[in-house]
């Protein structure tokens, strides 16, 4: 596969995807579905637009992450170097967030069940337990499950690339996928078959060792993103079929929204309807990825003075946003504010915390790896004036 230059469109797509994720989590406070903290004001009108986002927002993140992984792999001296780099960039901020960022959210979760102590007491005495406490399971990774999955998929990818013939097999797979209209029907056939095979066999339960239905979708799109990062064959193929992908996304989206409006809350549909719903979600996820990749390639593939900063800020924003939403909602919703005031307050608090977390953290070199940023290279001390031109130098 050929090495390509930086794709600004994929940077913008990644920025937009994480921005949508943050807005989605704020909206969950007001949506009719169950979530961590709920407002007294719930709006059924949020069901349709949020249902239209749900099938593809996370698969898109894994596809873009796969593409970014390809670019990082190209810069690595070896597979082992790639593994070391990804472990440092993913596991260090994960560990920091588990120790410092997640505890306030878990504190709110036990407060809901009657926990009587403050945050400091909880963090020192109760957060580190293993098992069930006040109806909550500990430890809990909360929103950091995405980082866990991404690290695990990266390790599987590195093992595949390190295996003799792994890269060649991936290239042959790309060549096969880029032929005819296979980029549409082949992944859909594979993903739908995997989804239906697991649907009534394993629970749809989040967790690195329990979410087999999620892995069956996320791993293939992650690998597709990785392959896309080094292939010249797939982009023209995407350009040929993006309109059909858009049509499939529209049709499947109608089914997804209809099912969500019909079977709301804990109302479980019959097996046949559930199978159709899950198939429609898979169709929408894949077709939206294809269509959005074409949009990123055609209309967004240009630089801007803000792109580099926003792209760097995405991971720190992701790390901090979820606990901020939960804690802010917990302490402000009892005030009885109007719905728009509640939303504005949540949005302002989340945006302020995200920007402060990034802007402060990026300026402190020892903090940068903890919030998911590369450490700045140390500057070598300038040579003394009297040493310039001396025989020893």
UniProtKB/TrEMBL annotation:
Residues 9-358 form the Acyltransferase domain. The keyword Phosphoprotein does not apply. The chain crosses the membrane at residues 12-33, 45-69, 90-110, 150-170, 182-203, 215-235, 242-263, 283-301, 313-331, 343-361. One of its GO terms (molecular function) is acyltransferase activity, transferring groups other than amino-acyl groups. The keyword Ribonucleoprotein does not apply. Keywords: Acyltransferase, Membrane, Transferase, Transmembrane, Transmembrane helix. It holds the Pfam family Acyl_transf_3. PANTHER family: BLR4337 PROTEIN, GLUCANS BIOSYNTHESIS PROTEIN C. This is Acyltransferase. It comes from Sphingomonas alpina.
């Amino acid at each position: 596969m050929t090495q390509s230059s930086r794709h600004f469109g994929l940077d913008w797509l990644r920025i937009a995807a994480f921005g949508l994720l943050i807005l989605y989590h704020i909206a969950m406070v007001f949506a009719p579905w169950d979530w961590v903290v709920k407002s007294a004001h719930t709006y059924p009108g949020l069901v349709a637009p949020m249902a239209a986002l749900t099938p593809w927002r996370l698969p898109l993140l894994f596809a873009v992450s796969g593409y970014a992984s390809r670019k990082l792999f190209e810069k690595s001296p070896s597979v082992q170097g790639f593994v070391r780099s990804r472990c440092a960039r993913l596991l260090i901020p994960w560990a920091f967030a588990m120790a410092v960022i997640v505890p306030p959210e878990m504190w709110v979760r036990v407060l809901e069940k009657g926990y009587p102590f403050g945050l400091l007491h909880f963090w020192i005495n109760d957060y580190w337990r293993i098992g069930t406490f006040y109806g909550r399971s500990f430890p809990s990774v909360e929103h950091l499950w995405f980082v866990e999955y991404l690290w695990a998929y990266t390790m599987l990818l590195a093992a595949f690339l390190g295996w003799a013939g792994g890269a060649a097999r991936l290239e042959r797979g790309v060549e096969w996928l880029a032929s005819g209209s296979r980029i549409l029907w082949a992944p859909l056939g594979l993903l739908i078959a995997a989804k239906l095979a697991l649907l009534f066999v394993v629970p749809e339960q989040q967790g690195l060792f329990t979410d087999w239905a999620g892995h069956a979708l996320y791993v293939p799109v992650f690998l597709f993103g990785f392959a896309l990062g080094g292939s010249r064959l797939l982009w023209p193929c995407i350009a040929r079929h993006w309109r059909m992908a858009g049509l499939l996304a529209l049709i499947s989206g109608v089914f997804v929204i209809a099912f969500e409006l019909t079977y709301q809350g804990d109302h479980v549909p019959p097996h046949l309807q559930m199978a159709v719903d899950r198939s429609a979600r898979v169709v929408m996820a894949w077709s939206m990825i294809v269509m959005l990749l074409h949009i990123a390639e055609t209309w967004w593939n240009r630089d801007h003075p803000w792109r580099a900063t926003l792209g760097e800020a995405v991971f720190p924003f992701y790390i901090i946003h979820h606990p901020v939403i939960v804690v802010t909602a917990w302490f402000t919703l009892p005030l009885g504010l109007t719905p728009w005031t509640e939303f504005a307050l949540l949005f302002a608090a989340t945006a302020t915390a995200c920007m402060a977390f990034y802007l402060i953290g990026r300026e402190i070199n020892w903090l940068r790896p903890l919030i998911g940023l590369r450490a700045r290279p140390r500057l070598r001390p300038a040579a003394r004036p009297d040493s310039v031109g001396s025989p020893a130098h």
